[in-house]
Amino acid sequence: MEYIKLSNGVKMPTLGYGVFLVSPDECERCVSDALSVGYRLIDTAQAYQNEEGVGNAWRKSGIKREDLFLVTKVWISNAGEEKAAKSIDESLRKLQTDYIDLLLIHQAYGDVFGTWRAMEKAYRAGKVRAIGVSNFQAGRFFDFAHYVELKPMVNQLQCNTLIQQTDIEPIHAEFGTKMMAWGPLGGQGVDGIVKSEALTAIGAKYGKSAAQVALRWLTQRGVVAIPKSSHKERMAQNFDIFDFTLSDDEMAQIAQLNQHDTGIINFGDPQFVKYLIQNYG
Ligand SMILES: NC(=O)c1ccc[n+]([C@@H]2O[C@H](COP(=O)([O-])OP(=O)(O)OC[C@H]3O[C@@H](n4cnc5c(N)ncnc54)[C@H](OP(=O)(O)O)[C@@H]3O)[C@@H](O)[C@H]2O)c1
Which residue's CA lies nearest to atom 39 of ligand 1? Predict the structure, then answer.
């Protein structure tokens, strides 16, 4: 495993396992498989409703707590200082742990500053080792990071070979923020990356699949990737990316595959904001 160092010195694996759209019943089995394959970073969220499955799988694994890196996210309906504080305690209870390694604001809506104050308090109380945000696009991220006291250590964004998020990189750098990629293989049910001819051709040289090349490209950029699969053999394939290195030329070729600098979801689109808040807020 390779690691990056967050701005507060916390060491974070560059590859993890994500459990979005993994049902609460299935989650324990999937995370147990992922841990047995070797993953030590697990990415969940209050909104995924499967934090208990993550906690159960870890408890049964026998893996020491200090060897695990747990990531969860505060959902919009828990925004605001008081509600966020309660929700953090609830996440700790469900995850069956007394600290979260990385806690993120899931979406940039509602009282995010109140949520952040609760997260800063949890951080100072030792309930959380690092704090960050998710889905904060460049302008929103700058505004937020400028005004908060503790700067976000991570921004989790949709990022992959087709959506490279290059525009936000210099803004992250100003605040010492690391990027974490959701949808690193293109997302659920999308096969443009895992079947990419360009990535398949590059992978052939190393005996690797297009998916492995896509993940390696992210980690070589210093971006943390958290692919999801419900299949153990794919979990193992996605984990097996540290025994080859893409050349500078191959990194540059993959950079040419970019189709969207800033992601395909426009988080500032009023229709999207309305939909999310009315249905899930
Ligand atoms: N912060 C946010 O708002 C946000 C949003 C979305 C996701 N996330 C996080 O990011 C994680 C990953 O994103 P994601 O789940 O959307 O998408 P993803 O990891 O890019 O893609 C998952 C899809 O790829 C398939 N797959 C996995 N490995 C494969 C392989 N080696 N070959 C072919 N197909 C493969 C999976 O199918 P099978 O399961 O059938 O193998 C699944 O359909 C999530 O689980 C979650 O933790 C965060």
Answer: 229
